[in-house]
Amino acid sequence: MRPEKQQTYEDIEKIDDGNRYELIDGVIYMMSPPTSSHQDISTDLSRQFSTFFRGKPCKVYAAPFKVKLDEKNYYEPDLSVVCDKRKIVKDGCVGAPDLVVEILSPSTASHDKVKKFNTYLKAGVKEYWLVDPEDRTVLVNILANGEYVLKTYGENEIIPVQTFEGLNINMQEVFEDIW
What we know:
Blueprint: H1 9-13, E1 21-24, E2 27-30, H2 36-53, E3 59-62, E4 66-70, E5 73-75, E6 79-82, E7 88-89, E8 92-94, E9 99-103, H3 109-123, E10 127-132, E11 137-144, E12 147-153, E13 158-160, E14 168-170, H4 171-176
């Protein structure tokens, strides 16, 4: 049910029940705890990205990490890469990260594929990844001329990260150790 008034990030801050929440188009949603396969994927992607960015000006942030895109949209992406340190505040990031990775789960896939997709596009996220643990695929959306261009990769492929020259993510390493 949609609330009668738009909810805000401040409304989330008032909730003190130990759960994590996101604000999507002005509506608060409780986040489900991640599965073990979700965590395996997140850990390996974080390792590969972090290794590449060691000693470089960009930083990698794994969830929970707050990303405030605007007054109606506050997310906790599974992985964010931020290159503008002015966007980093005490409790997260204000504005669009350069790259965002969301690992799909049945309970959040529709938000990730539609609502977040459109919000990240509007905010100017240069590269938006959707990792599907079930299909073992990665949908890479690359910002070009105000639209996302989609490239699809499988479980045994190496993904050249378009936003960061020289960064290649080995998906075989990501998917091989999932239990």
